[in-house]
Design goal:
three-stranded antiparallel sheet, mainly alpha, single chain, two-stranded antiparallel sheet, 44% helix, 16 helices
Length: 466
């Protein structure tokens, strides 16, 4: 109150700039002793003041109310019907009157999240102000990431078993017009992105998403258990003696234990069979079906010199990027370049530049393994191997375009690196994890074609040991 009007104006101008810099999607909780009395005129300051204010308004109060009205903020202290002793926060030393000077201010839309705001009379804060406590129910939504959105995982395993789904997928993909047909001179990346998006959209309609449903031993025995429970409940309502009722209860518990043991034994035998036959994908899928998915969290990791632990998600991601860059791109420190440069040059093979035939493409396609996690495009090898003639033909044409232009789509070069704990060592140490690079299945087809040609050529001059 002793400051000049110019200083007060500068303060509120600065506070206004700070509040305006906060994104509209973020919540605001403004706390402070403003030395302002806002009064009880709730009709004049609609949605800023509540019906349960106290005292008269002063000059500081008008400045605070004007700021809240401009930015659509609400003073939560005035929205709860409480005795005056739970509203006020400071007593004037001369008049001995209690006033409300300390506020909790939120956005008008977030007022529904505030449960109560009141003064705590017994709290000792080593100050002549009472502690103001505000209880809130904060429902914080995760930020929406519009870019780099990975498509949903689909149930492509159905293509391996169901021939009708294969035919329907091939038919609908052939009938769907490609968006790139209307574009003049589309780039390779645009051609591939249009093909991948179109294929994923059609697959989503035909195949559908993976059904995430955890199994439980009670589900498979639900009917029989309900009958036993019904018999036991009827015995509770009837005039049976306690001895008969206890006997029925023992029968029910014994049957429940038998059904539970039988279910777990059958699941264990099924998992053992999958492990013995090297069906790794179905083995882990069955485990996830029983126990449910694991909760994925960003754990703190050590810095490079292991002196501190990083907890901020952005710093953790940068540390993982630094670690995998060292592992996957070690450089050529141990190579003797003089020796390599002294080697005789091999003759140039002009056959390597000829475009691949459909037979080469088909053989490379068959080399892809089933049950592997897809890359960024969420299109696994099954959709190309069992999708049908239209899908294979369109992919082969795209491979020929890439071969002729000598430009590979960026999605084929990018990899999603998934880290797996080795099972020993410190959880915060990056070296205790191994990374798995998930690549695009379509890019693997081109890689197999090139690799097959190089291996065939190398057999003519490399020894068998290499």
């Amino acid at each position: 109150m002793t400051c000049s009007d110019e200083e007060k104006r500068k303060f509120y101008d600065h506070l206004r700039m700070v509040l305006l810099s906060i994104p509209q999607c973020d919540k605001i909780i403004l706390l402070g002793d403003f030395n302002a009395r806002v009064g009880t005129e709730y009709l004049a300051w609609k949605n800023v003041l509540g019906r349960h204010g106290i005292g008269k308004c002063n000059s500081n109060g008008y400045a605070l109310l004007a700021l809240c009205a401009e930015l659509e903020l609400s003073i939560t202290n005035t929205f709860f019907r409480l005795p005056d002793k739970y509203k006020t926060s400071w007593m004037h030393p001369r008049s001995r009157h209690w006033h409300l000077l300390d506020y909790v201010i939120v956005r008008r839309n977030d007022l529904k999240d505030v449960l109560i705001t009141r003064a705590m009379r017994g709290a000792q804060g080593w100050t002549d102000h009472r502690l103001i406590r505000c209880k809130m129910r904060l429902n914080i939504k995760p930020p929406h990431r519009a870019e780099h959105k990975i498509p949903a995982r689909l149930a492509f395993s159905k293509l391996v078993l169901d021939v009708d789904i294969r035919k329907e997928l091939d038919k609908k993909f052939g009938n769907t017009a490609s968006d790139s047909d209307s574009v003049d001179n589309p780039t390779i990346d645009a051609e591939w992105r249009c093909f991948a998006d179109n294929l994923h959209k059609v697959s989503k309609l035909v195949i559908g998403k993976v059904q995430k449903k955890n199994q439980d031993w009670f589900d498979d025995s639900d009917t029989e258990l309900r009958q036993l429970v019904g018999v036991f409940r009827r015995s509770l309502r009837s005039a049976h003696c306690n001895q008969e009722r206890n006997a029925l209860h023992q029968v029910l518990k014994r049957k429940v234990r038998e059904l539970k043991n039988e279910w777990w034994l059958a699941k264990a035998q099924d998992l053992q069979r999958l492990a013995d036959t090297n069906q790794t994908a179905r083995f882990f899928e069955s485990l996830r079906t029983i126990y449910g998915p694991r909760c994925k969290k960003t754990a703190p990791v050590y810095s490079r010199d292991k002196t501190t632990k990083l907890t901020d998600p952005s710093e953790v991601l940068l540390r993982w990027a630094e670690h995998f860059n060292e592992v996957l791109n070690p450089g050529s420190q141990g190579a003797d370049l003089n020796y390599i440069n002294s080697l005789d040059a091999l003759p140039i093979s002009s056959d390597l530049e000829t475009p691949p035939s459909y037979e080469e493409f088909h053989n490379a396609l068959n080399r892809l393994k089933n049950g592997k996690s897809p890359g960024y495009d969420s299109l696994p090898s099954e959709v190309y191997k069992y999708g049908g003639k239209n899908i294979k033909t369109r992919l082969f044409e795209l491979v020929l375009q890439i071969w002729d232009a000598e430009i590979v789509p960026q999605d084929w070069k990018d990899a999603l690196i998934s880290k797996l704990y080795k099972g020993k060592g410190d959880l915060s140490d990056c070296s205790c994890y191994r990374g798995i690079a998930l690549l695009s299945a379509a890019g693997k087809v081109l890689a197999h074609v090139i690799n097959s040609r190089l291996v065939k050529l190398a057999e003519s001059f490399l020894p068998e040991s290499q």
